[in-house]
Design goal:
Helices cover 86% and strands 0% of the residues. It is mainly α.
């Protein structure tokens, strides 16, 4: 039987880190809207630190799964099938929360990507406009 405390602890830690990442995504969106490069740089550094935490947790999860006899590519859904009823619900709740957080992160990432795209288009337009003006002075 799978050790509930270890897998649930790892998944909860991952959910917490992704929750922190979600807050950073909101800060990043505001920094993009405000064109605040200082905050953008700070957010990028914090994102790197969170990525390091996530990689460590993923490594911990992989070691745990290997120890429990699972293949490296086992899904959380497959893992939940191995749990007993009260344990199953606890881990399922954690997974549902994690999925919700990841969905929200994905939405922010898509919005931020679009904001960057529009910002870049505007900058390119301004460069072309100024370049034409410099080539054709009155």
């Amino acid at each position: 039987m799978v050790e509930l405390s270890t897998i649930s602890e790892i998944l909860e830690k991952e959910a917490n880190v992704y929750g922190d990442y979600l807050m950073l995504a909101a800060r990043k969106k505001q920094a993009i809207l405000d064109n605040d490069m200082v905050i953008m740089q700070a957010v990028s550094l914090e994102e790197k630190a969170l990525t390091t935490k996530l990689l460590a947790l993923e490594s911990e999860r992989m070691k745990f799964l290997k120890k429990e006899g699972f293949k490296a590519d086992v899904t959380v859904r497959d893992l939940i099938k191995e749990l007993e009823s009260p344990e199953k619900e606890k881990v399922q709740d954690i997974v549902d929360n994690l999925e919700n957080i990841l969905d929200e992160c994905n939405k922010f990432q898509k919005q931020n990507k679009e904001l960057f795209k529009h910002s870049t288009s505007f900058i390119n337009h301004m460069i072309k406009t100024f370049s034409k003006g410099m080539r054709n002075p009155r």
